[in-house]
Amino acid sequence: MNPALAHGADIAALTGRHLRHLRRTPEKITGVALTPVAMVVILGYLFATVVQVKNTGDTYREYVMAGVFAQVGLSCIGITAIGVAGDLGKGLIDRFRSLPMGRATVLVSHTLADLVTAALSIVLVALTGLAVGWRVHGSFAENVAGFVLLLAFAYAMLWVGALLGMVMRNLEAISGVAALLLVLFSFLSSSFMPLTGLPAWLRTVAEWNPVSAVSEACRQLWGNTGPVSSGSYPVAHPVIVSLVSIGLLLVVLVPLSLRVFRTSATR
Amino acid sequence: MNAAIEADGLTKTYGSHRALDDVSLSVEAGTVLGLLGPNGAGKTTTVRTLATLLEPDAGTARIAGFDVVRERREVRRRIGLAGQYAAVDELLTGRENLILLGRLLRLGRKGARVRAEELLAQFELEYAADKAAKDYSGGMRRRLDLAVSLLGSPEVLFLDEPTTGLDPASRATLWNMVQDQVGRGVTVLLTTQYLEEADFLADRILVVDRGRVIAEGTSDELKRKVGGERLEVTVTDRALLEQAVSVLAPLAVVTPQSDERQRTVHVQLPDGMGALASAATALEYAGITVEEFALRRPSLDDVFFQLTGESAGPADTPDEKDAR
């Protein structure tokens, strides 16, 4: 068999394994989707009537949905981390590594299968959003582009998870760190609130947070709200900033993870 | 000699800890080498190095003639590895586990399916083929693990403590299955803490401790190293113990040792029936009533304890190693 085809077949076989897991333990999706879905209900439905976003006529519901979608990306860190750490702990990675496979195969399959989980979670969040009255107003291409951007962001986060899983090993510790990352990066961003109220230095940090860029970009693409604060580059060009930061994350994370994978031992 | 596994001067350090210290070994094709040692002796590190999972800091190793560092891919095509953990995917069924790994071994979809059926039959797992592996018993999991490691029909099989935690019946089944593979010409490197396992399966035994090889030989050779057959005399009364020792001492190679609690004297005699007869006569003559008079060959346990000093006092352990 030609080598490229063989690698493809390996990735297909392993991705199939993870998807089988997903089918047998569908509750895995709740791990990713539960919090965001709850957020949609709490923020988009309960808070929507009392919170008013300054300087815009839009409702909070319109504003907050893009932020919740970005949060789905962040909660993806945990699933890959736990999947990879679990395989390591049970000696499966040792077995895979003793096979004549390409060195990227195991992690690529993990992240590809978890991307399916991410996509399903995004669908769940979207349905919940539609149910509470959220709508997209962009052109068809813009609307689709927003979701593609979300998937790309989720994919980068899955590689964060792969690295985290190999470095931390301990499942409880991973859950803790993943939860911390989720809270830290989603609240230090424009996901749930405009950044206008923050002190200048913190505002700069939050504006350059890829989570801000991604949620701002989705808002723009879906026509959910105009830019809330003006002036700084990331707020003015969220799509470019999102794409560049996702690209940078992958360029750094993928080779680094593969390096760690090569030397990662079971114990 | 046609060596299927050959290692020369393998060394691996983690910080200041020497996991492997100049380990050399050679296993003839179609034979079984038992790697025996206490926890942390370097057994698993040796296996992982030979199975291309760890790179040694120094030294070389060849599997079926291929270098484990430079020709990793060639080596991986020829080895099977069954680790300490029974590395099976718990959510997949037995059959799915085999098919998945078969596909990763590039047997093709159909080839993997056919091979899976063969192995399910061979390892008596057909009845559980469609059950998730998490519902398997310990013995079934090990069998599945062994089956998975044999998917690619490897020339060399590494078994890292294959029966740890199994009940005696499952252990015996697994032993037979390993022997079956050896019968088909597979070379096996087996690590174990069970001396009877090494005794039963291995043609040659390597005793390792703290990363070093401290003894090598067949089971018989190792037993001989510890000394010949020993006479065990159990007397009827504890009071007779001292007398028995003094009567037997002139006949023994080294001073006899007595065990108060068991009322037993251990005597190492020179070889031959004569020595045995003299011992019996001496006891009879002294009027010592004997409950049991038995000749015992040293077990691998004795070898193990003596070599690794696990049960010996700490003072005499270094001497023993220096002597070698």
How would you describe this structure to a colleague?
- The complex is a heterodimer of chains A (267) and B (324).
- Chain A has 11 helices and no strands.
- With 267 residues, chain A is mainly alpha-helical.
- By secondary structure, chain B is an alpha/beta fold.
- Chain B has helices spanning 43-50, 72-78, 94-104, 109-122, 138-149, 168-183, 195-201, 219-226, 241-248, 273-286, 300-308, 316-323; strands spanning 3-14, 17-28, 32-36, 58-63, 66-67, 79-82, 156-160, 187-192, 204-209, 212-217, 230-235, 257-259, 264-268, 290-296.
- In chain B, the strands form 3 sheets. Chain B has a 6-stranded mixed beta sheet, with helices on both faces. A 4-stranded antiparallel beta sheet of chain B has the order 2-1-4-5, covered by helices on one side. In chain B, strands 12-13-11-14 form a 4-stranded antiparallel beta sheet, covered by helices on one side.
- Chain B folds into 2 domains: 3-224, Rossmann fold; 229-296, Alpha-Beta Plaits, CATH 3.30.70.
Question: Structural class, from secondary structure content of chain A?
Answer: mainly alpha
Uncertain residue segments of chain B: 311-324
Strand ordering within the main sheet of chain B: 6-7-8-3-9-10
Name of the level-1 CATH class of the largest domain in chain B: Alpha Beta
Overall geometry of chain A comes to globular
User: Considering the protein shown, what is the CATH homologous superfamily of the largest domain in chain B?
Assistant: P-loop containing nucleotide triphosphate hydrolases
Measure the end-to-end span of chain A. 35 Å
Number of helices of chain A: 11
| Strand fraction of chain A | under 5%
Oligomer category: heterodimer
Q: Could you tell me which chain pair has the largest interface and how many residues each side has? A: A-B, 25 and 30 residues
Bin the helical content of chain A: over 70%
